[in-house]
Specification:
Residues 9-166 form the MobA-like NTP transferase domain. Keywords: Transferase. The chain is of the alpha/beta class and 185 residues long. It has one domain (7-172): Spore Coat Polysaccharide Biosynthesis Protein SpsA, Chain A (Alpha-Beta Complex). The chain contains six helices and seven strands. The chain has a seven-stranded mixed β-sheet, sandwiched between helices.
Length: 185
């Protein structure tokens, strides 16, 4: 498959965070670091050439938390579910050769997991981290799958079914962190 080429990191941070009690784009660590900033740093340090944060609910306040050098894409139709955020991110990454996607609610994702998933692009056009056999994030999508993935997602369902159907390469990252997302404060 060759190397991934120019890679755009995408942080999906557009949702309202209903179970969380507010937009996760506004969430911070106990030390006060914005989750958005942590995700953007992990993507950059893991090998992404650029990073885009997709905002929706709470976008005005969340934009202030986006680190310098990181682009913002607005999912105007964010209330329609995760699929709308993913489409906005893929559109923002249109000039890249591949995208590495993480949701904002995985603030503990290490750069090493991003790098490991990017390394899988040498063997497959779709790569997904897994944790103790469970699929997780980050996910890498080569550009030749952007349009088909954008067309395949609906409502609040993300890339998972598409990745499974196309037999994405699963890369074990269990030794790096738990892979858990945070749905509650």
């Amino acid at each position: 498959m060759g190397e991934a080429g120019r890679i755009c990191g995408i942080v999906l941070a557009a949702g309202a965070g209903t179970r969380f009690g507010g937009p996760k784009a506004l969430a911070r660590t106990p030390e006060g670091e914005p989750w958005i900033a942590r995700a953007a740093r992990a993507l950059r340090d893991g090998g992404c050439d650029e990073v885009v944060v997709v905002l929706g609910a709470g976008a005005d306040a969340a934009a202030d938390l986006v680190p310098d050098g990181t682009r913002v894409a607005i999912a105007a139709d964010w209330a329609g579910g995760l699929s709308h955020s993913l489409r906005a991110g893929l559109a923002a990454a249109a000039e890249a050769d591949a995208a590495v996607i993480v949701p904002v609610d995985t603030p503990d994702v290490p750069a090493a997991a991003v790098a490991r998933v990017i390394g899988g692009a040498e063997r497959a056009p779709l790569v997904r981290a897994e944790y103790d056999g469970r699929p997780g994030h980050p996910v890498l999508v080569r550009a030749d799958h952007f349009a088909a993935l954008a067309n395949a997602v609906t409502g609040d369902v993300g890339a998972g079914p598409y990745l499974a159907r196309h037999r994405a390469l699963r890369v074990d990252c269990s030794d790096l962190w738990s892979g858990e997302d945070r749905d509650r404060r």
